[in-house]
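Crash report, auto-generated. Payload:
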Amino acid sequence: MFQLDFKDRRPLHEQIKEQVKKLIITGVLQPDERIPSVRELAQMLTVNPNTIQRAYKDLEAEGFIYSIRAKGSFVANRDSTEPHPRREELMRELERNVAELMYLNEPVEQLLETIRAIYKKGGLNE
Amino acid sequence: MFQLDFKDRRPLHEQIKEQVKKLIITGVLQPDERIPSVRELAQMLTVNPNTIQRAYKDLEAEGFIYSIRAKGSFVANRDSTEPHPRREELMRELERNVAELMYLNEPVEQLLETIRAIYKKGGLNE
DNA sequence: CTTCTGTATTATATTAATTAATACAGTTAA
DNA sequence: TTAACTGTATTAATTAATATAATACAGAAG
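Recovered output after restart:
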């Protein structure tokens, strides 16, 4: 379930963060489910515990997990009432990309259809 | 027309690249229009010429400009027949963001409307 | 021939990012 | 209470990225 791809030259903590996030948004990890502790996952992946801590810290800042001292780290509940900290950032990034795609003559209908398809199938592949 | 905001902590060559790209996609710089030479822009911005060269090299790799030895650098023509190298990358990034926004309960209609609005007004603000 | 292009190379200094080794504090269960 | 597990913080060391600098080369234009 947790594994690392060393062909990637991106920082380890980022790779780990993205993989955990993927497990969350694909529903493999459910809200309030416990994820491996910092030291556990560090041993599983043979990396330094601080690398895992960095990934978890970033995931918590983005609102995808929450950590309780001496208890563990858990998947955050997404349907909380407060606004998600990651949301605005995603929207701005999306807008920049759409503007760039428009300049590159990508048809608007193509984009609309892409989005509809993702929502229809309930997320991304793999 | 060319200026830098040093409040940003991102690398200089990246800031320069993004600003030139913005001038291109907003239509301020037109296809086949000449942009400042490496040394000119370096002097204008009081940075090292190598920093400009790095930005231009990246912009060329993404297909936004083209350079001719001893002549100068120019805005690339976007309606060429060959596929734009930046396009697939943008689409994949957009798909990842949409999947994440879907997980965060962003309504699909909101995304569709955002895209329609961008196309309608012909790009992004400022 | 002189001057301007883009491009490439090498070196260096500085800054940022990453990893590592410890220590601390709180919870849980034996 | 003690032992073993949690997350967290701090500091140091190492590694990677960035930016500048000084040259050099090749082609185009006047």
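Post-recovery validation: Residues 37-39, 53, 56-57, 67-73 of chain A lie near DNA strand D (CB under 10 Å from a C1').
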